[in-house]
Amino acid sequence: MTDAIPIGIDLGTTFSCVAYWDPARKEHKIIPNTEGDNTTPSIVAFTVPKNKKAAAGFKSERLVGSAALNQSSRNAENTIYDAKRLIGRSITDKDIVADMKLWPFKVTEGKGGRPMINCKYDGADKQFMPEEISAMILEKLKEYADTHLNQKTSKCVITVPAYFDNKQRQATKDAGMLAKLNVMRVINEPTAAALAYGIDKFADASDRLTLIIDLGGGTFDVTCLCMDQGMLEVKSTQGDTHLGGADFDQELVEHCCKTF
Asked: What's the pTM?
């Protein structure tokens, strides 16, 4: 079967999902994972031997998504998440410096000041770039799409926060390339949300302003879009990489620790 259907991927901080456009029904459809869920945890883990005896000749298993999440409490140092907060950024970034105090896995400085994620793999110390971790998540989403569509998918569009700079956007493309995907383009998440809502149905409207609020697990975007004669123009955008559901959870934890 020819590779006729591109896929769209929302590569999120905490959850990711993959979808495609059904030309017959003229609607987009989300592709469920093997557990039947529409979203997949953006988590990668590497298994470790249970004891020294088992360590001889041990080969790590790579887990992605729900499987990685389910074992995270007993294998915290080798369970990686929040790769989106690291991708395309410097280890000296103040947000990353603050996050490093909370992550159970270790992040060290690599070449050119890039953050490198440390873990145990096949009994040895291993370092991964954030792009490599993101690529593992993308590979899993591609696998779901291949099975659902009964074809080998390769073309895709990936969403990114509106305030991602060029370095972060390129790093996201690099992650797609590592996952053997042809990233046709990266599209701003608020724009993707507006299209999913159906803002294009108002193509005849003149100077129609729409406020798009995208509150995710790790990021928060607010964008003002103008639809004028079928063209979408971003009038203004602002966002925060540390104002999502996971951050709310962390604030509650800190509040409870101080109170009790």
From this structure: 0.89
Superfamily of segment(s) 1-193: ATPase, nucleotide binding domain (3.30.420.40)
Look at residues 206, 161, 212, 166 and name the one whose alpha carbon lies nearest to residue 187.
161
| Paired strand residues for 121 | 124
**CB 3, CB 154: distance < 8 Å:** yes
Which listed residue (84, 140, 142, 173) is catalytic? 84
Instruction: Give the model confidence (pLDDT) of 2-24 as tens digits.
Output: 556 899 999 999 999 999 988 88
Q: pLDDT digits over 9-62, tens only?
A: 999 999 999 999 888 888 889 999 999 999 999 999 999 877 666 566 678 899
249 catalytic per annotation = no
- Of the candidates 132, 174, 214, 221, the residue annotated as catalytic is 214
- The residue annotated as part of the active site, out of 10, 82, 99, 131, is 10
The ranges assigned to domains in the chain are: 1-193
> Could you confirm whether 53 is annotated as catalytic?
no
200 is catalytic: no
